[in-house]
Design brief:
mainly alpha, 12 helices
């Protein structure tokens, strides 16, 4: 029994370390490129890097002895048309639910615009289109690298040794811890980030693919970078309901959150049954 417990602990520890290294080293290439060579050359270089990164983490290149393990951790499989349809719906629903949850949060408490903007100043980029492109590339980098690290290389080995629920909880916990280092990591954001991790973890497990999580994560982060963080597309101006009362907008925002969560959960369940 002691040996079995020690083996489980080693599997979890190794998966955590591997997931963090595989995901976060790659995710931090983009900020270096952006600051060193600027737009738009940095965007082209990052696109090439991400293509090579995906090729390698899904089993391409050396060492050949790790090929099968890399493919398994990336959840490589052939997706049917039905998988794509349900997976795309789930991806959009999860991204929508995260943004709706943030809106509802900042109808309950004041929106700290300066804290959200801190560390995301793109004023060194000369034009708005290039700033938006930088936001899109930032989102793609985070979506691809974080899903690979957390929902792939971290979650898959734990799934195989301990089952889906512990694996999803572990990957979501470390996903949350990573983001608590940000200036915007208010106490109200903790359940939103952890909840996003749970949804993306469940999506990866149910669909047996990282593709849909990457799509949803990228869509989610495009909005986060361009609107909430870099504020290239403006900033949130609605007032808390303590000032406005429970108005029609707040009712609609809560409804959107509820519907998005319901759609996400339903499509994840469909993917699992498939």
């Amino acid at each position: 029994m002691a040996d079995a417990d020690a083996n489980k602990a080693w599997v979890v520890l190794r998966a955590i370390i591997t997931g963090l290294l595989v995901g976060m080293i790659a995710a931090n290439v983009w900020p270096i490129l952006l600051l060193k060579i600027g737009m738009p050359l940095a965007a082209a270089a990052e696109a090439l890097f991400l293509a090579l990164y995906v090729w390698w983490v899904r089993g391409g290149g050396p060492p050949r002895s790790w090929k099968a393990a890399r493919a398994a951790n990336f959840r490589v499989r052939t997706l049917s048309g039905g998988d794509w349809a349900w997976g795309a719906i789930a991806a959009v629903a999860i991204a929508t639910s995260v943004h709706a949850a943030i809106v509802v949060l900042f109808r309950l408490v004041p929106f700290p615009a300066e804290a959200f903007h801190q560390g995301y100043d793109l004023s060194f980029i000369p034009t708005t289109p290039l700033k938006l492109l930088a936001c899109v590339v930032s989102a793609a980098s985070a979506g691809i690298c974080e899903e690979t690290g957390f929902r792939g290389y971290m979650q898959v080995p734990i799934e195989r040794r301990m089952g889906a629920l512990p694996a999803i909880l572990v990957s979501s916990f470390f996903f949350m811890l990573l983001h608590l280092t940000k200036s915007w990591a208010l106490i109200g954001m903790v359940p939103i980030v952890f909840g996003a991790g749970l949804l993306y973890g469940a999506l990866a497990w149910a669909s047996r693919s990282l593709v849909f999580g990457m799509i949803g994560h990228t869509l989610m982060d495009i909005g986060l970078f361009a609107y909430w963080w870099a504020q290239v597309l403006g900033t949130f101006t609605q007032r808390p309901i303590s000032e406005t009362g429970i108005d029609q907008s707040f009712t609609i925002e809560c409804a959107v959150l509820g519907i998005a969560l319901l759609v996400a959960a339903s499509t994840i369940a469909v993917l699992r049954r498939r």
